[in-house]
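>> received
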Amino acid sequence: MLVYIVRRLLQALPVLFFVSVAVFSMVQLLPGDPVRSLIPVGDQTVDPAAYEEAVQRVRHQYGLDQPPPVQYLRWLGRASRGDLGTSIATRQQVSDMIRHRLPVTITLGLMSALISVCIAIPAGVIAAVNRNSWQDVSATVFSLTTVAMPGFWLGMLLILVFVVWLGWLPGPGSYVRMWDDPVEGFKLSILPAVALSGFSTAALMRLTRSSMLEVLAQDFVRTARAKGLAEHTVVLRHALRNAALPVITFMGLQAIFVFSGSVIIERLFAIPGVGSMAIDAIFTRDFPVIQGFVLVTATVVVVINVAVDIIYGIANPLIRVGRS
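>> returned
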């Protein structure tokens, strides 16, 4: 097992390297000049020479006057030490900005993942066991409707119903972190967590149902029933345990949905996470913040996928020896 874990960790290193190259290259291709956006345009009309001198001075300060390969090597060297540079817009350390905001996004992601698992897996199991029944039809209609519903639209609908019409929950704009005030933080986080979990809940439900249907048709399930085992024992101990392997893989991919979806959801609900930070950085062409956000996001996704592969290897020993 240790050899399998080490092999998976070593395989992740080239992925992180190519991700860093892709992140740096894509940011360099973004339109606009972040340096000129920091200096008032009016200075150009007053004294063009002084304006250009100020632009070149700021560009040299951030190393933007160097060739792209040199910029990349310097950025990669600093990033490997945990230094993601300085924000052009706020003059703050990018690593400090991400460290303060990342727990908020992680909390939101954990809540959305918990909602997805608690709804999707039981619903998928019930739909598979009661195939073609009203439970199965209801679960199918719910999953198809939710998949077709964009997260931001679901978020606006939740705000309209539970904040504006019913007044049960506080509206966006007064976010409180969960560890500062658990009750108020939960009230402010439940709606964005539900909006963020919509797509993953529907997809996980469909995956659980199809995986359970496949396992329930296997010979060992029929043998377990022939032995006289209780139906709940057959479903939970035999069928669900074997059907959980693809579900585990999908739950690892859910991290991608969390970070990509949080960019819009955090903006919609005025949540100070890394997603809203990324939106602000894109608007201001703050390249160091954009690079830091994408690099940290990609690293988290790679680490989670490696952890899922390790869990998958524990659940299925054949994978560790390379037989499947």
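>> The two ends are 15 Å apart (CA to CA).
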